[in-house]
Specification:
Helix content is about 30%, strand content about 25%. It is α/β, with parallel strands linked by helices and about 725 residues long.
């Protein structure tokens, strides 16, 4: 395990005092596991169904019983909390524990949706130790297979097939459905087969075979008496291109009612076949390994509890920490989205009733993005970068939307640039693994949060002072890792950054010597050139500014310091920033939307993809139009939005909730109730005002995307 500098949950001595939330079926296995580890004792239990809590308390000699967590936290001096309640309660319960500063072991999943999980991860980052109770991968047969794989037992992996087939939703002779007898809540879950059952298998496959990409998904609702899907088939792919298939059904005749797995791993050296609790190896390493279900099923809970206590007491990283579980949640969300998109009646992500409709079905005010235009803008930037051999790392401060970031990466982007640590946390939680925070991360609270992101593949932070470098290096070293850093160079913006030339070399030398840091290179922003209208003059100023950056990089190399990253550029200096020798990557982000400000002040020719749909709410005079979109949904600070299709406009102004337009001449159109669509004034200061973005193509809604990085400005 990797040591990390996270403050222990409690200063209390062993045994730790544990509170258990939830007294349902699964709590029995939690309590057996707690009773077997002498480093902790469950001193209180709560459940809204107080009789259930009393029953468990009597069964396991728990001294205190409560109906709710708030009461339990007030009445008990707890060191940690074990949450074994339904998933729709997790977010509120974890936040309550975080307010008390105590560690949490939370039943899977961390939250009902990925967006909820990302928001929760951001809210509690640096405040408490948080582990997700995902016990499937801790089952002894999977731990055995993991060891076999890690010792190259399979050789080169060829394919994997996994199935969870159960008859538990078929009626027995008495007309009962066994699964619902044990877990009645499953009859009401609208997301059942994937979110409640196969989420375990997705997590286990990720753990066994590494990061996975979703290829296909389908679901079916085969048992009318339950609310959710009861059958699913999910196609996945490893980073090496190995195909994996995951299948599940809850009404499979002839199979056991309990969820025993079948797994076939095919390799070039040996293959393994798991059937329930028996593993058979064929090929070069032939043999068998058998487990006892009743004993070893409980052993998985025992190992989870032991691992949680190891992490709390020794202050080590949890195997199933927040970031790990969010990656599983991402696969769950993507599976539902792809399954919905594959149905004949839907073309994309069905997240609200509006998806599949037209613009007229959208309530206003609403932020819209034209997919045809945005995708063309993405392709243009990506192609230009490829033609010049420069990497593209789009700045997402104005995008804030995971689905857009994934579209950019699919087009060739190497990662993302973030303005704030909060944005980076959202990106990391969504599985983005190459992140540059192009600003300084300062202060103990933020540095603790930053250290939680160290496990991702490529994490880079900008630095412009030795003091900040020493703080970051000490934290990273104590966490057992190395943090990538770049020097921010002031090449004309006159904001942050060290002066070009020798000051850069001196700071680079200090960073190269600093334990815990990995010096990567330089970053700068030639923002003083963006508003120059003359193309040749702009090209010249951009070249002069970026030369300060590349000359500084050359000076570092001459001093024996490796520089592999020289990052600069933005929409306002496209394409000139890409053309400069010595540049390794550019941060163009706003171009994918474009807007009034980019076109009129930055003089770029990207077509506008981002609009705001509004409704006419009043026509008090023949020249005045009042719309239901004001400063709370539109930005007018850099440039005013431009209505589309209206007669000549004399003036326009924004108030808190309205836009008031004065026409140059009287007009009966538009009438009250009609829609007016506007090109946004400045996308960077508009997107963050909304919680979702409606993606359209040729007037029809293809998707409704949560703007998950909205508000992540800390």
């Amino acid at each position: 395990m990797t040591k990390m500098t996270v403050r222990p949950t409690s200063s209390a001595q062993v045994p730790l005092r544990i509170g258990l939330v939830g007294a349902g079926m699964i709590s029995y296995h939690h309590l057996i596991a707690w009773s077997r580890d002498k480093r902790a004792t469950v001193t209180a239990i709560c459940d809204p169904q107080i009789d259930n809590a009393r029953h468990r308390a009597a069964e396991f000699n728990i001294p205190a019983v409560y109906t709710g967590l708030e009461e339990m936290l007030a009445g008990e001096g707890l060191d940690a909390l074990d949450i074994a309640s339904p998933r729709d309660t997790h977010v509120a319960l974890v936040k309550m524990a975080a307010a008390k500063g105590i560690g949490v072991l939370c039943q899977k999943p961390l939250a009902p949706t990925l967006a909820d999980g990302v928001a929760l991860a951001h809210d509690v980052a640096g405040k408490i130790r948080l582990m997700v109770h995902e016990n499937w991968r801790f089952r002894p047969w999977y731990r055995h297979l993991k060891q076999w794989l890690d010792h190259d037992g399979a050789g080169r992996l060829l394919q994997v097939d996994m199935a969870m087939l159960s008859s538990g939703l078929l009626q027995d002779a008495a007309g009962r459905r066994p699964i619902l007898e044990r877990q009645p809540f499953m009859g009401h879950e609208k997301r059942l087969m994937i979110a409640e059952v196969l989420i375990h298998h997705l997590d286990t496959l990720r753990w066994l075979f590494g990061p996975l990409k979703l290829v296909s998904a389908m679901t079916a609702h085969t048992v009318p008496e339950v609310a959710g899907e009861t059958l699913a088939a999910i196609g996945l792919e490893t980073t090496a291109g190995v195909p994996l298939m995951l299948r599940g059904a809850l009404d499979a005749a002839g199979y056991p009612e309990r969820t025993l797995d079948r797994l076939e791993i095919v390799g070039t050296r040996s293959s393994a076949m798991l059937d329930g609790t028996a593993i058979r190896f064929i090929g070069a390493e032939a043999g068998e390994k058998n487990f006892e279900f009743a004993r070893d099923y409980q052993a998985s809970f025992d190992q989870v509890i032991a691992h949680f206590l190891d992490g709390l007491i020794d202050v080590t990283r949890f195997e199933t920490d927040v970031m790990d579980n969010l990656e599983t949640l991402r696969l769950v969300e993507e599976s539902y989205a792809l399954a919905a998109a594959s149905r004949p009646a839907a073309k994309a992500i069905v997240t609200t009733p509006e998806a599949g409709g037209t613009k007229s079905d959208v309530d206003t005010p609403a932020l819209l993005v034209d997919l045809d235009v945005m995708e063309a803008n993405i392709a243009r930037v990506a192609t230009t970068c490829r033609e010049h051999g420069v990497r593209w790392r789009p700045h997402i401060k104005g995008q804030k939307t995971i689905e857009i970031v994934r579209a950019e990466i699919a087009a060739g982007a190497v990662g993302v640039t973030c303005a704030k640590l909060g944005e980076a946390e959202v990106m990391a939680a969504a599985g983005i693994r190459n992140i540059l925070i192009a600003n300084q991360v300062v202060g103990a609270i933020k540095i603790r949060r930053l250290m939680a992101l160290l496990p991702i593949d490529e994490l880079i932070v900008a630095i412009d002072s030795i003091g900040n470098a020493q703080e970051l290096g000490a934290a990273a070293q104590a966490a057992g890792g190395r943090l990538g850093v770049v020097i921010e160079v002031d090449i004309g913006m006159k904001r942050a950054g060290v002066a070009p030339g020798q000051p850069v070399v001196e700071l680079a030398q200090a960073l190269a010597r600093q334990p815990g840091l990995h010096f990567r290179g330089l970053v700068g922003w030639e923002s003083h050139a963006v508003t120059i209208p003359d193309p040749e003059r702009k090209r010249q100023v951009v070249a002069e500014a970026i030369a300060l950056l590349t000359v500084s990089a050359a000076a570092c190399r001459k001093a024996g310091i490796e520089v592999d990253l020289v990052s600069c550029g933005g929409t306002g200096t496209f394409p000139y920033c890409i053309e400069q020798p010595g540049v390794t990557e550019v941060q163009i982000g706003g171009a994918i939307f474009s807007d009034v400000y980019y076109r009129t002040r930055y003089h770029v020719d990207f077509p506008c993809a981002l609009t705001l749909l509004s409704t006419v709410t009043s026509r008090p005079t023949p020249t005045r139009i009042v719309l239901d979109a004001g400063k709370k949904t539109l930005s007018g600070d850099a440039a005013m939005p431009e209505p589309i299709g209206l007669p000549e406009i004399a003036s326009a102004r924004l108030s808190a909730e309205h836009m008031t337009i004065e026409l140059a001449n009287p007009s009966a159109k538009p009438e009250v109730g009609e829609r007016v669509e506007m090109v946004v004034g400045y996308s960077d200061t508009t997107v963050h005002l909304h919680d979702r973005m409606v993606a359209t193509r040729k007037g029809r809604i293809e998707a409704v995307w949560p703007i998950v990085a909205r508000g992540r400005s800390r």
